[in-house]
């Protein structure tokens, strides 16, 4: 049944079978946003001027090989009319050496000069070739990354939390069908893929098969179930974290292969109810859940000198112990002593260097 549902969303021609240049409108690798058109034009003019100076020097060094003895001005004049393909013919190479230099040096320089000063057509072709190269290199090196399906409020929040934990933007791939959302993600340095997270071919070009984790945050619960089914089929070992609006649908996501499910509507409802009684508690909980703002809940490996200690006696405020995939609250008997291989859930201050946590691991 699951396979039939997933197969129904597969297109006749899969994007993953297309060459990289056909994916330019699908995959967007962040580019340098600081490069303005005027800066690009200035760079082209500088390269063209440098090429003109280079050819002038080559011609002047071999000035005896031309129809007249050249001065520096003559060499610059010949270089200019040659590079711009005007070629008045008043100065010509006459020796075998000068003609060989024209063939091997000045002719390629002439072609490069034309490319530098070319119009919009070649500029677009050059841009497409560069983007194709970026996509090819990105797809070959993409491993152990995180895929976020849906870049709405929940998706953007999950990305912010990942970035706050020290994950590089280049290791996060966003899948969405909304061009405005993708543009926003690209502005934050994220790689984006345009398409539906329910389609296997879109997931393939996002590298889901090689992903370490997948965050499923569509706006509809039925879409979340289909996304989870498709992801689990392609990535049996990836960690899937999904969001669901209604708690009644939570078991569907777990049956579809999600490792963890967050019920967004009920969680928001509980916070609203709690805020009417103890608003300061809600403020603290929002602080814990907000990246780069005060405190946050983090996970780290147990340090060697902490083995055998009670987690409540550590410097860090420990909330729970993760042992063999089981979460043990710090106030239970099972968490009375830390064992080798345990991981701790604790309250981290945002001033704490994420690299320190990585070193502990």
TrEMBL record:
This protein's major location comes to membrane
Q: Which organism is it from?
A: Corynebacterium ammoniagenes DSM 20306
Membrane topology for this entry?
A: Multi-pass membrane protein
Per its UniProt record, what PANTHER family does this chain match? POTASSIUM CHANNEL PROTEIN 2-RELATED-RELATED, POTASSIUM CHANNEL PROTEIN YUGO-RELATED
* Localization (cell): Cell membrane
User: By its UniProt entry, which Pfam families does this protein fall under?
Assistant: Ion_trans_2, TrkA_N
Name-wise, this protein is TrkA N-terminal domain protein
Which N-terminal stretch is annotated as signal sequence?
none
- Please state every residue range assigned to the domain named RCK N-terminal: 143-263
What are the protein's UniProt keywords? Answer: Membrane, Transmembrane, Transmembrane helix
InterPro entries tied to this protein: K_chnl_dom, NAD(P)-bd_dom_sf, RCK_N, Trk_Ktr_HKT_K-transport
Membrane-spanning parts: 41-61, 103-125
Q: Taxonomically, what lineage is the organism?
A: Bacteria, Bacillati, Actinomycetota, Actinomycetes, Mycobacteriales
